[in-house]
Amino acid sequence: MAVVPAGALMRRAAFGVAVVAAELLAGKRRVGLLVGAGNNGGDALWAGYYLRKRGVAVSAVLLTPDRVHAEGLAAFRRVGGRVVPRLRDVDLVIDGIVGLSARGPLRPDAAEHVAHLEAPVLSVDLPSGVDPDTGAVSGPAVRAHTTVTFGCLKPVHALADCGDVRLVDIGLDGELHGPDLVELDIADIGVAWPVPGPEDDKYTQGVTGIAAGSATYPGAAVLATGAALLSTSGLVRYAGPAAEDVRARWPESICTGSITDAGRVQAWVVGPGLGTGLGAEAVLRTVLEAGVPVCADADAITMLANNPDLWDARDPDTLLVLTPHDREYERLAGPVGTDRVTAARKAAERYNAVVLLKGHATVIAGPDGRVLVNRARSSWAATAGSGDVLSGVLGSLLAAGLDPVLAAGCAAKVHALAADLASDGAPIPATSLLAALPDAIRAVRPL
Ligand SMILES: NC(=O)C1=CN([C@@H]2O[C@H](COP(=O)(O)OP(=O)(O)OC[C@H]3O[C@@H](n4cnc5c(N)ncnc54)[C@H](OP(=O)(O)O)[C@@H]3O)[C@@H](O)[C@H]2O)[C@@H](O)CC1
Ligand SMILES: Nc1ncnc2c1ncn2[C@@H]1O[C@H](COP(=O)(O)OP(=O)(O)O)[C@@H](O)[C@H]1O
Ligand SMILES: [K+]
């Protein structure tokens, strides 16, 4: 703002909003603006100005008439924009209530206007009421059909539902620093996914060890082992009390009843359905002492939280990925709160581990400060046993030698994709998610 003429950035931003609005209108002609007190409202008014100049009928509700972007309002009025008490009969709403300076949910007067909207909403910068930094929605908020943002994507666009997100260049190149959050796309994952070459055999691709399941929960062992088998073509070893069940379902796995007889692996998955008794603690200790990367999930996380002595079994250089859901996170590091990125970062630093915090938006933080986000496109993965599948996928990628942050990012994305493919709009059990892994991997692999 210091180097370009006053108002230039806003007019570039607003022009971008007007172009997308015209596209969404597809020939219709009535637009309503919801205008808040700050520059976000200014953007909306200037967008209204450009749309008026194209012959669109534009009306505006000023939520705070005593505090409104003065130049934007003057320009809007100059071209025949109308100020109205309430939006009626519009084809598209432009949400300029609040942008980057937003705090908390919509205030009651703004919420009242939003509650009665019927037309699709184009949000300026972000859907008003959603927190710009955390994506948290703690009360009334706009539900955007499309969001137009400027210069760079903000955390909210990766963490929350902003509809279709369009990025408009307003000439900030060179002024922006590197990203705080990274969302892997399908191409990133396709390139990283392990593929056997002519020289490979079952050992060179990495052997995954699964220390999971119990007499009470044999299914977790079956799911995690199957997920590892379907994720890379390296060998999978299972060790534990569910050996009979695992062998019956997955004859290609090598199963032993005890971790001490398991043989060598390049990574361990420990925890799903394992229990938290003394036997389970001994298993966790053995795995942490093995000196290979470990994915610690479910009961392994609970044991680490309840018995901090277990951390001593880990050589500090052993790569560790913790995969808590919110309640497991709370045992480890206190309540997650609304800022999931900070929560994941905090635990990653505290435990010198990669932390994959599960949820609709899965956040992965490395102890080196890297953060990846993967927002699912549906919530069908929220089903019992789905986490066991995730841990198996992740373990096999660790065994294949992927960097643990990348491994976690790839696993989260393919897992979410498998849920979408399996579900196709209907509820699914975790076994169906598991069975869709090959389709999900095919979908990310380069052609
Ligand atoms: N930076 C750039 O380069 C560019 C920035 N640009 C644009 O500027 C926007 C940022 O503008 P900004 O900083 O003026 O603040 P903004 O988000 O409009 O909010 C301010 C007002 O909102 C109010 N308010 C707060 N919370 C609220 C709630 N929950 N519910 C209701 N109201 C709430 C709060 O009121 P107060 O607390 O003062 O009563 C405050 O006065 C940015 O998002 C982008 O659109 C573009 O023009 C391109 C160049
Ligand atoms: N609302 C949601 N939308 C999308 N994915 C979700 C949602 N809730 C949970 N998940 C995903 O489903 C999995 C659930 O894991 P977890 O809670 O450990 O289940 P379980 O212990 O039953 O195996 C995680 O991968 C998580 O990211
Ligand atoms: K907005």
From TrEMBL:
Top-level lineage group: Bacteria
SUPFAM superfamilies: Ribokinase-like, YjeF N-terminal domain-like
Keywords: ATP-binding, Isomerase, Kinase, Lyase, Metal-binding, Multifunctional enzyme, NAD, NADP, Nucleotide-binding, Potassium, Transferase
Co-factor: note: Binds 1 potassium ion per subunit.
Catalytic activity, EC: 4.2.1.136
Reaction(s) the record says it catalyses: (6S)-NADPHX + ADP = AMP + phosphate + NADPH + H(+); (6S)-NADHX + ADP = AMP + phosphate + NADH + H(+); (6R)-NADPHX = (6S)-NADPHX; (6R)-NADHX = (6S)-NADHX
An example Gene Ontology biological process: nicotinamide nucleotide metabolic process
Domain YjeF N-terminal: 1-178
Domain named YjeF C-terminal: residues: 185-444
GO MF entry, a single one: ATP binding
Signal peptide: none
Enzyme type, top EC level: lyase
Function recorded in the entry: Bifunctional enzyme that catalyzes the epimerization of the S- and R-forms of NAD(P)HX and the dehydration of the S-form of NAD(P)HX at the expense of ADP, which is converted to AMP. This allows the repair of both epimers of NAD(P)HX, a damaged form of NAD(P)H that is a result of enzymatic or heat-dependent hydration.
The protein's assembly and partners: Homotetramer.
Family statement drawn from the similarity comment of this UniProt entry: In the N-terminal section; belongs to the NnrE/AIBP family. Belongs to the NnrD/CARKD family.
Protein name: ADP-dependent (S)-NAD(P)H-hydrate dehydratase
Organism the protein comes from: Saccharothrix carnea
